[in-house]
Design goal:
Rossmann fold; 11 helices; about 40% helix; globular
């Protein structure tokens, strides 16, 4: 083999090797390494909704032992029911004047979305504030005017007054009962009349004397009025005022009396016959639930008036010396009020001039009761301001 032939063979071998290497390289093309799998991430919890801010305006101090104390117990029932879904606050001793409007505006300005005004005299101020704060829900106790974002609520306190009267008629020895009245509006006049009607159901001989103090919470005036009634022959006292001053006066002077709005037994245990109480909790829970779930509605006619039937009114802590038959009668009355088989305002009912106001077998409706402005037969005197 010549040198030329050898070189040709070596060249061919080299080219063959290069081609083979190229083919091997093409057949083993390297893929990029797969990205490492990511661990699944837990989805972030949805942010917790801010609590509904609720404010209460009180006409008296929370420690009054009566009206405001009962409302504040209702506020506490809300906190227990809804926990951190709500945030509540209150302002006490808010007078029924221009100050009420200022306080209500401040409550709205602080971000409260549900505001309760707990006395009759807040009605006009609340209407003004509601008109300027359409995103806030307003609830007015004992009033009769509503707006697009304001409704009213009340308790049938006259049912508790009637049941107290049933006891009073049985327990009086002088047949003279005394009532310390706050302000002469239909709500209070109803209670005086219902108390008297209840007493007459136990003792047709009773008569009722009334002294007005023209305020809801004024212990010195309430004491003075109670003393005047006792001096006038009353041996069992009733009240439509907010402090326990009447019961305390009865205790000091050896007479008997009732607690009002809250259980006042502790303020005069010897004098105490029973307490006609209000439980605002059920209504406050209902209203707050509606505000939370979006079903809250107001406007004309949006008024709630709850009594024994709804668990808002009761007579409690009845004294041991009240006769068993009187307690049994109370049970019948309470049952009848709860199931609708008993009506307090069923005629014939005459006023103290002898004029029949509710005809025989007629049951007065809520409209009639809402404007009641006369004393029933057995109540002495004349309603202040009545024609």
């Amino acid at each position: 083999m010549t040198d030329l032939q050898k070189r040709s063979l070596l060249k061919a071998a080299a080219l063959t090797a290069v081609a083979a290497a190229a083919l091997v390289g093409c057949g083993k093309k390297e893929e990029p390494a797969p990205a490492p799998a990511l661990a699944p991430t837990a989805s972030a919890p949805a942010p917790k909704p801010a609590p509904l801010k609720i404010a209460f305006a009180y006409v008296g101090p929370v420690g009054d032992g009566g009206w405001t104390f009962a409302h504040d117990n209702g506020r506490k029932a809300l906190e227990k029911e809804f926990g951190d879904k709500i945030s509540t606050s209150f302002v006490e001793n808010v007078p029924e004047s221009a100050d009420a409007e200022r306080v209500l505006r401040d409550m709205a300005g602080q971000g409260n979305k549900l505001i309760f005004g707990t006395t009759f005299g807040y009605m006009e101020p609340m209407l003004k504030v509601a008109a300027d704060n359409t995103g806030v829900k307003f609830e007015h106790a004992t009033g009769y005017k509503q707006a697009a974002n304001m409704r009213t609520y009340d308790s049938r306190t006259y049912e508790g007054a009637y049941m107290a009267g049933v006891i009073a008629g049985k327990m009086t020895k002088t047949n003279t009962l005394g009532v310390v009245g706050s302000i002469p509006i239909p709500e209070v006049i109803r209670n005086i009349n219902a108390f008297t009607l209840g007493a007459q159901s136990s003792n047709p001989k009773v008569k009722t004397k009334v002294v007005w103090v023209n305020g809801w919470f004024d212990p010195p005036k309430e004491t003075e009025a109670a003393t005047s009634l006792i001096n006038g022959g009353a041996d069992v006292l009733f009240q439509n005022t907010d402090s326990p001053a009447v019961l305390k006066t009865a205790e000091a002077k050896g007479k008997r009396a009732f607690g009002w709005d809250s259980d006042m037994t502790a303020y005069g245990p010897k004098a105490h016959l029973a307490s006609a109480v209000i439980n605002w909790g059920p209504y406050y829970i209902k209203a707050t639930k509606e505000a939370l779930d979006g079903s809250w509605k107001a406007g004309a006619g949006s008024h709630s008036w709850w009594g024994v039937k709804e668990g808002a009114i009761d007579i409690v802590s009845i004294a041991e010396d009240v006769p068993a038959e009187t307690k049994a009668k109370l049970d019948e009355v309470k049952k009848g009020l709860a199931d609708g088989s008993f009506a307090i305002w069923k005629g014939p009912i005459a006023d103290n001039t002898g004029k029949v106001q509710i005809a025989k077998d007629t049951v007065a409706d809520d409209k009639f009761l809402g404007g009641l402005n006369f004393y029933v037969k057995g109540v002495e005197g004349k309603v202040p301001g009545a024609k």
